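Justification of computing resources. Each target in the renewal requires a structure prediction run like the one illustrated here; the chain below, 484 residues long, is used simply to show the kind of job we budget for.
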Amino acid sequence: MNNRLVILILIICGLLVLLWAASRMRAPMSRIYGDPSRKVSDDVRATGYKPATPVETEAEVLFYQDMKGYNTSRIPALVYHHDMFFAFAEGRRETFEDIGEMDIILRRGRRKDWKVAWGPVQIIARQSGYRMMSPQATIDTVVDMILLVYNVHPSHVNFFDELVDETFTTKLMAIKSFDLGLTWTEPQDLTHSIQLIKPRASLYGPGPGHGIQMKSGRLIVPGRFWSRVTDSKQIAFKNGTFPQSNVIYSDDHGNTWHPGGSLGYREDTNGIAIFSSESIVVELDNKLCINARTLHPDQPRILSFSNDKGASFGTPKLEGSLEEPGYYINDTAFWTNHTNTLQGPFLLEDKITSPAFVGGCQASMIGFTAPQPLSPSNTWVVFSNPASFKTRRNMAVKISKDGCRTWSKPWVIHANASAYSDLAYFETWDSDAGVYSPNIAILYEAGKENSYESIQFKMFSLERMLQGIALAQSSPFSSGSNFL
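Resulting structure tokens:
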């Protein structure tokens, strides 16, 4: 009798343990993997959206000028996996400009609630006599891998000189980590895959920023390439070539790669060529959206959609609500004179500016499951860039709730000088609402007198972002289009 009682007690205890384990495994999978496509928000949609407490962290400097012997750190890339952030950048040894020897560097950050403990700087790609550029990070949740794709250029040959030579001098390389960035594989040369791009590429660059893994498992790396002009009706940008955005993709976890769709040669309604460049991609409900920089100083960003998993893209469209900077400040005393007052708006007439030869600026997008059951789209998208039609300042985020068709006003998170950025999605447990809540992290170039003084990191909840955007909607100074 006693033995039966003991057995019964053991059975009951075992069942309780199984129930506890099942409750732990049901919702946190998205939190574990940090994958926006995993629908941890399904329980939110079933019970109705309960706004979480707005949270915003102070900006934290992760890389800065003269750090670890580097002249400047530029070109941020950010991904999130297993409760950790991975912040990549170019470590430029000789100058802040796009020339000289460069390394790809990394800082790993362990997140606990709204705090991140950052590790030291790691050098993960270096080659004497070359510059490592355009880090593009992607998480493959199927094989638990971090993929980093990057360019290799001769250190003292500039981009436009590379376009003159018919010989393809750029290399595209990839490394992988299966232990959360502690160690990395030997570089894999992917150059042959981009040489299959049509029309033939003279120069290629990934992203930069982050790639995505589609729900199907396909890895998508957005980027841009330069081709020679062959039609007399087309306008060349430089050295008889023009740039266009594109994607490459892999269906075997990054072992082999294939050219995907590109945006091609386009002109706007005024007959001005649209030269698309650095790009970012997001997966929507049943399609992909590519969002690209344009190089003309007065053009906004350009968007296009794919219905075949990135194999091709439809006719691209300039998106006027996604402004990007295209001008230089010629008044060298400007930043010094206005350092203490840059939080306020300034009329363009107060500045002396000139068009940049290479206009626009890199930007980022991240998609995640919409928390509201009645949302026009199952996927919400957050966008970041310097929200200005003129110069690189006003780092801001916007949101689209309808599949990238319309965009909110910008919530400015850094009103001073700023440039490149990258976004990552993560979730936290909200005990008041009883659900996992969506949040955003941003890694961005920022400074007071110029955009390249530092690369900063910041986190905020979706609720805080919506709060900031709502305030911007009612402000006459919310748009960067009328201000510097």
